[in-house]
Amino acid sequence: MKQHIGNKVVLIGAGAVGLAYAYALVNQGTVDHLALIDIAKEKTWGNVQDLNHGVVWAPSRTVVTEGTYDDCADADLIVDCAGAAQKPGETRLDLVNKNLAITKSVVEQAMSHGFDGIFLVAANPVDILTYGAYKYSGLPASRVLGSGTILDSARFRFMLSERYDIAPTSVHAYIIGEHGDTELPVLASSTVAGISTRKRLEKEPGLEKELYSIFEKTRDAAYRIIEAKGSTSYGVGMGLARITRAIFRNDDVALPVSAYLDGEYGEKDIYIGTPAIINRAGVHRVIELELTEKEAAAFKQSADTLRSVRDQAMGIK
Length: 317
Known about the structure:
By secondary structure, the protein is of the alpha/beta class. The protein has helices at 16-28, 41-52, 96-112, 126-137, 150-164, 197-203, 207-219, 221-229, 234-248, 293-314, and strands at residues 8-12, 33-37, 63-66, 77-80, 118-121, 144-146, 171-172, 175-176, 184-185, 191-192, 195-196, 253-262, 268-279, 282-286.
């Protein structure tokens, strides 16, 4: 096989999320070669042609091709978006058994073709599937990560920006835990325009209730969007593109991803949403936020929920 020059991504699963990610990559000029793998061959061909026809307007050239698992041999990054989509009324955890089988197949095929890069999982339930990818691949935990709560945190920052009438980039706040119903906001460590929420909470008695109401809208946003348009795609696609950029540009930036815990937050051997430093090696280190007693209890509940579902699905005793 001809060796690629520059950064190469293999995208597995060119559905709504995968294509939103691919479109963001091409628009941002983040990678040099993007190979798309999907079971819908003809549709994939059409999407590859469509993306290539927009490259002329992109900031730099991206070579977009129809991929096969042979492309994994010299890929720097595999992004796994393959899996059944969440349906109206379905939780992310409801998808676990069917999508875990798909992830196992994807990972085993990639590894059998000589993959030795970084594995980024976006299919749901992302925390459990990322753990599965880690176990099935045999790669170091630092080179396997999931999209985690990057979308939840972006939603929360956006909704807070509307509340304070300020740009979302001036809001810094994290959602951690499961990418799903047991996630939680870390209010005390958040800031808006450099002013800590901790100080705002001390001065405004009704603020905590209001912020938790905003968080609940954040947590439940996917259900409303899925009911309205069938899926969520653009937000997570851009989040995946941000993680990709952090890897290839060696950013050393803190992003809320699904990362492996080895004692952080008192948890071990689990993938869960938390800020982590992302660079060319993958997850450089996990950032352990300072949690209140209430937040720590909620995080433990989230981890326990994930572990219970994971262990049952994977037969872990």
